[in-house]
Amino acid sequence: MAIAAIPQYLGTKFDTASPALRFGMYLPLWGVDHGENGGQRHLLWETHDINYRHSGRNQELRAFRDENKTACLKAACALTPADKLVLESLVERQTALGKAAPNLLILDAQSVAPFSTGLGNEHPLENGFAFLNPYGLPYLPGSGVKGILRQVARELSSGEWGDSAGWSEDKHYALKIGKKEIWLSMLDVLFGYESANHEKEHVRGALSFWDVIPRLAGDRLAVDIMTPHQSHYYQNNPAAGSNTPHESGQPNPISFLTVPPKSRFVFHVDCDQTHLRRLAPELAENDRWRGLMTAAFQHAFEWLGFGAKTAVGYGAMRADMEAAEERRRAQAAQENAEKKRAQEAAEKARLATLPEWEKIRTQVLKEKTADQKDEDALLKALEEKRWPDADEARRIAEEVAQKLKDSKQWREKSEKKNPEKDKPFQKTQRVKRFLG
Q1: 172 and 24, same domain (yes or no)
Q2: Pairing with 133, which of 23, 100, 407, 435 sits 20 to 30 Å away (CA)?
Q3: How far is CA 115 from CA 145, 217, 367, in A?
Q4: CA geometry: angle at 332 spanning 330 and 333, to 5°?
Q5: 384 and 290 in one domain?
Q6: CA 391 to chain centre
Q7: How many structural domains comprise the chain?
Q8: 50 and 128 belong to one structural domain
Q9: Are 109 and 319 in contact (CB under 8 A)?
Q10: What domain range is 86 assigned to?
Q11: Residue 323 burial (CB < 10 Å; 0-12/13-18/19+)?
């Protein structure tokens, strides 16, 4: 059984640690020679175990070299219940921050291929992975998102893809820095400008790109394997029979972590509108920058991808319309709730300025049933003596009388043989008792 390169007092069970710790400090990679016939075990400090099993026609006891690379990576894949809570908290925090940002573009996406990032980070297995500290969860840095979209903007501006989607590298925007005037392109304005030859004229871009926290499909990472088989060529090793590139070299399986397909990503792009209006007012007008960035994201989803190994199909995504619709519904529900709260606050403030008799009237009408008419609710309240003051009761009675007249239900005299069965007449008599 492989071990991690840590002090013994830390133990060997790390099921509750974050994926980053299980992939890094607590990685059970280093092999053990388990000894023949249960003999003494000793550490190998290699990435494989030596196990002894009976094998062959004669069932002889033989030593087998069992690699730990893939197994130890799989042990780092699953999210613990605590990891899931932290992940949801991070997503909710971004959502709350997004509500407070008035000039934020939010795009939902779903991966259609494995996604990986941070492969260049140092790691015993040669391929690292990007985890967000101190949470230990996978993420795509905002700087990586910005780099991809800047490249997309260059490609679209070049015209090589036909429709430029409005992008251009022409330098239309003048900016005076001290006594010097520089000209900026659309890309310089949005992504930033760095002058050549170590000069001092640098311009901050109007856009900021947030880190992306993927919601993992199946609540776990995945393990992929690449098998380069031309190391004899790259390392100039003639031991393979030739040091020229060919397709029959010795494969070298290399395991690495990925975010599985069907994982969900939410991209946030924040725009400094004040800065944008100063640099390029036309891009701020009618939020033109949003259309440009939406087109850039769509191109990146379809053709470039995000993260590492995009040249071989990793990091491909598609717009997640279902999540976008869900977000729109949630936003509409929130706006309706806020509107309702504002109306209730305004009504409460209005009621506070009303005289007591009118507050009672408003409360009576608010409490009436859906099939009950206003005049019936007010008349019932009159008979329940909700207005003890005679003048106030008369004022309400006059309102009820007017409502009955408007609906042609006011009858001073009954035309029926039995007036007691004449409901409009009886109602009129009840009101007249309060009119004095």
Answers
A1: no
A2: 100
A3: 13, 12, 57
A4: 65
A5: no
A6: 61
A7: 3
A8: no
A9: yes
A10: 78-221+259-319
A11: middle
- The residue whose two tokens read 């925090």 is 93
Most confident of 9-13, 25-29, 137-141, 177-181: 137-141
Q: Residue 271: what pLDDT? A: 97
Torsion angle (degrees, nearest 10) of CA 238, 243, 249, 250: 30
Examine the domain organization and report whether 19 and 88 are in the same domain: no
pLDDT tens sequence across 131-174:
999 999 999 999 999 999 999 999 999 988 888 999 999 999 99
pLDDT score recorded for residue 189: 96
* b/e 204-231 (16+ beta carbons within 10 angstroms → b): ebbbebbbbbbbbeeeebbbbeeeebbe
Same domain (yes/no): 162, 92 = yes
Do 212 and 83 fall into the same domain? yes
pLDDT of 200 strictly over 80: no
**Distance separating alpha carbons of residues 433 and 436, to the nearest angstrom:** 6
Tell me, yes or no, whether 273 and 125 share the same domain.
yes
pLDDT tens sequence across 294-306: 999 999 999 999 9
Instruction: Give the tens place of pLDDT for each residue, 267-326.
Output: 999 999 999 999 999 999 999 999 999 999 999 999 999 999 999 999 999 999 998 899
208/155 same-domain check: yes
